[in-house]
Amino acid sequence: MSKPWYPFYPTNVPYEIELSELSIYDLFERTAEERPTNKAIISGEEVLTYAQLKHQSDCLAAALYHRGFRKGDRIGVMLPNCKEYAIVTYAIHRLGGVLVQMNPMYQPNELAHIFDDSEASWLISHQEQQQKIQAIGIADRITMIATDRGDGQTANLYQWIAEERKQLPPLDIQLKEDIAVLQYTGGTTGRPKGAMLTHFNIVSNFFQNFISYAGVYERFSESVLGISPLFHGMGMMNLNTAIFTGSTYIVMDRFETTKVLELMRKHRPTVIAGSPTMYIALLRHPDLQPTDLRSLKICGCGSAPMPVEVITEIERKSGAVIIEGYGLTEATSAVSRNPMTGMRKIGSIGVPISSTDIKIVDLVSGTTEMAVGEPGELLVKGPQVMKGYWKNPEATQQILQNGWLYTGDIAKMDEDGFLYIVGRKKEMIIAGGYNIYPAEIEEVLYEHPAVSEAIVYGIPDAYRGETVKASIVLKPEMHATEAEIIEWCRERLAAYKSPRFIDIRTELPKTAVGKLLRRALVEEEKRKLSHS
Q1: Who contacts 159 (Cβ-Cβ below 8 Å, separation ≥6)?
Q2: How far apart are CA 368 and CA 376, in angstroms?
Q3: Residue 11 resides in a domain
Q4: Which residue range or ranges hold the AMP-dependent synthetase/ligase domain (predicted)?
Q5: Is the pLDDT confidence value at 287 over 60?
Q6: What is the C-alpha separation between 102 and 75, in angstroms, rounded?
Q7: 518, 455 in Cβ contact below 8 A?
Q8: Closest CA to 422 of 331, 349, 517
Q9: CB atoms within 10 A of CB 271
Q10: Residue 518: which residues within 8 A CB-CB, separation 6 or more?
Q11: Of 348, 380, 411, which marks where a domain is finished?
Q12: Helix, strand, coil % (nearest 5) of the chain?
């Protein structure tokens, strides 16, 4: 059946792709066999070829297997961007294990939920992160492996690799059934949920991504600057795309504009992908030189809309095309993007990628399709849509219905099939490329002994896109300052989630039945902005 967006696909991009019968490790192994001497990872002055990366991953997999790690076991990986992330990733997938993504910025109470929910009994991290596990009180049931110099009591990743064990079980992956990654994502209510991403989801989304680059992204030829966090869906896909195509992945442990420019000048990468905040920071850097960005061919952008003036400036200084797109954790990474060639529409999130169908439905019943130009909830269907939420059939049933993923995002489609995000059904905040869920922060606020009521919401921020603000009411006879409340949150939440502003009020807006009205505070902020 023809779709309105089909005419705008580049001629070498098919409507449907032939879905792969390969696992994540299969694709990695194929590249290592085809190009063993190609540079796989550049980390500082160290270079790992594909043969070296495979050898280290296989040795680690054998060491894990020797110590009892088996298919389906959950293993937390709590690392910044580093070469070890790649070694660990493909070792886990060799054994059919489940990689549980853990943000290194998470604090003990955030991690406690993920360990409890995922039932992960292994952890790979830097030594310093393991203090958080001690704080949770679960160290006695977790096998902890340090990637850096240990204390003599904790297992060391490189010591295990150096054992050079060979015994590995047969590769046994059921593509559509076996979970490769548990990617935790928040929601409007309750604790973060683990999106179950299968090997089929991840490999399919890789092919969808790669094909959408319409021949611009060439196998064995590109170098990817890893500016997106690997514990995030976009960063994970950047690494896999680099590795599966025999390209080079250049490690950046964290985004820092001066460091980005240094790496750009030294390695001349051809591909980057990040949030608008990252591009804005680059443009603002006082030492940005006319040739610094000229090596780039592809600049991916997601997580939030990119201001038109930023797109224009980046493209002028790089010669590359900014590719705006849309994705979400529950769809692995990518759902839509503007075409690499031909028509693209600035401000749009583009058209659905190959083998992806979408529809826009009314916000009440979720069943009636909206007319062209009319907003409604965006629904997605495709091989990249997750298997469901880990151990949460009720939430799975709400978001996956008749094969369709209900995204919670409000969108409209024009007559050409180009999509535009116009709002969020969920009250998610996007700050600096990170998804932040108010309910999680509100829960921490309510734990403060002086807080009676709390509403968390996003307010406009010229640099981060949005930033977090909380309006609270204190209990009678109780006292707390804004600074004290902010510090309370910082001790319990990753820094990017903690409110930057606290507004202490005598009352909060409510409905007639007493429900707190977040939207009223958002509108109040908009009015302030319009009058400033």
Answers
A1: none
A2: 9
A3: no
A4: 28-390
A5: yes
A6: 10
A7: yes
A8: 349
A9: 27
A10: 427, 438, 455, 456, 457
A11: 348
A12: 30, 25, 40
Scanning the structure block, which residue is given the tokens 């964290």? 254
Please state the length of the chain: 532
Q: Please state, in angstroms and rounded to a whole number, the distance separating the CA atoms of residues 156 and 60.
A: 11
Least confident residue range of 242-246, 308-312, 352-356: 308-312
Q: Where do we find the tokens 């829960």?
A: 443
Mean pLDDT computed over 450-470:
90
- Cα angle vertex 183, ends 180, 185, to 5°? 155
155: CATH: 3.40.50.12780
DSSP string covering 482-522: HHHHHHHHHTTS-TTTS-SEEEEES---B-TT--B-HHHHH
Distance (Å, rounded) from C-alpha 410 to C-alpha 388? 21
* Count of domains forming the chain: 2
Q: Do the bridges between strand 419-424 and strand 336-337 make them parallel or antiparallel, or are there none, so unpaired?
A: unpaired
The answer on 182 and 84 residing in a single domain is yes
d(CA 345, CA 54): 41
Q: How many CA atoms lie within 13 A of 253 on its CB side?
A: 9
- Whether residues 299 and 157 share a domain: the answer is yes
Q: Give the per-residue SS3 of 273-329.
A: EECHHHHHHHHHCCCCCCCCCCCCCEEEECCCCCCHHHHHHHHHHHCCEEEEEECCH
End-to-end CA, the chain: 50
**Where is pLDDT greater, at 394 or 151?**
394
Residue 498's domain spans which residues? 429-531
Cβ distance 103 to 132 under 8 Å? no
- Which two structure tokens, joined as six digits, stand for 104? 């290194």
pLDDT for residue 301: 85
The Cα 431–Cα 277 span in angstroms is 8
Dihedral sign for Cα atoms in the order 346, 420, 296, 311: positive
DSSP 372-426: TT--EEEEEESTTS-SEETT-HHHHHHHEETTEEEEEEEEEE-TTS-EEEEEESS
Q: What is the Cα–Cα distance from 124 to 67, expressed in whole angstroms?
A: 14
pLDDT at 366 over 80: yes
Within 10 angstroms of residue 68's Cβ, the number of other Cβ atoms is 10
In a 13 Å sphere around the CA of 481, the CA atoms on its Cβ side amount to 3
